[in-house]
Amino acid sequence: MKNAQPAALDGLTVLDLSRVMAGPWCCQMLADLGANVIKVEHPQQPDDTRLWGPPFFRGDAGEDAAYYLAANRNKSAMAVNFADPAGAELVRDIARKSDIVVENYKTGSLARYGLDYENLKMENPRIVYCSITGFGQTGPLAGRGGYDFLIQAMSGLMSVTGHPEDNQGPVKVGIPVADLMTGQFAATAILAAVVHRLKTGEGQHIDCALYDSQLAALSNQAMNYLVGGEVPRRLGNAHPNVIPYQDFQGANGRIVVAAGSDRQFRSVCKVLGLAELCDDQRFATNKARLENRELLVSILTAATVSRDVESLVDALNAAGVPAGCINDIGEAFSHQHVRERQIVRSMVRDDGREVPTVAFPARLSRTPASYRKPPPRFGEDTDHILRDFLGKDPRAIAELRARGVIA
After folding, report:
1. How large a percentage of the chain has pLDDT more than 90?
2. Mind telling me the catalytic residues?
3. Which domain holds residue 125?
């Protein structure tokens, strides 16, 4: 569906040499905002996530895993073997005409093909080149590969995720949060570099690591450690700094209560028929409530356990306290609010099949995200890119395909 309003990043071309999630997620955000993103894959080794299923989305020309569909809309796809000198030259040709390169190969590995920043900037000094790796371009871990699960473990995130009484130990977050955060940090850094280029005319290299990004995303837990000196521990659904900010048992399910201020705490007490707690010095301030956490939780639970969850949610929200039910993903996407906000969009492939996608979450009033092209099939735009973007004639394209340089 083409957007009639202008796109914020219209006119920028991104060469996407990344695979799996962090890099593709970054490039999808740039594509949603109007950039022309060219995704390059190896003819015999496509993006791993195309095979990370089931479930698979099936079409006339094959199938792609739902995982791949999550991070590759609004892109064009070409298949080029840049281990072949002719293929490397094709990719360099694209880089010469691009504004941004995003790659997530191991540190230093693209230099052998002349596709590293130092080589590309000699021919395109305005290039903004973003390298996404597990551990960055420098430091003792720089040569290691890094997947999301490993980073969640090494960063400390898993150590604060899970219930303290669970003997199975720390658990990962149920989505690839380290990849997603890294992709968002990378996109922000790229846009900052583009603004710098507008001011100075010069490009730059961005070193964006999953490990660094996940450490930064520890946010309040990191600062709790750095300021307080104590290593944070698993608290289940309880908040390390605020109470009551957790789930409670109701008569027919569990309810989440997020009271972030003394005023909201007093409102919780009144809704639960516990107004006497408002003046109890053990609970009058957040500091006091944290010191008496176990006692307060037991008192509140005794009051919630007999209450209908939905009516209690309504009463708390009416009193100005954020509260809600714990939904599964199906329930979340079935909610009327999600439908009215059009968070799920459909994109139609050229075979007529509709691909569902989750909308870009930020609503820009003048330059909104657009949904122009469903996630491309493997190599579907190779000829188009070579012909229209690089100016190759059909005979040259046929020769490259016959030699196995492209697919």
Report:
1. 91
2. 179
3. 13-217+341-402
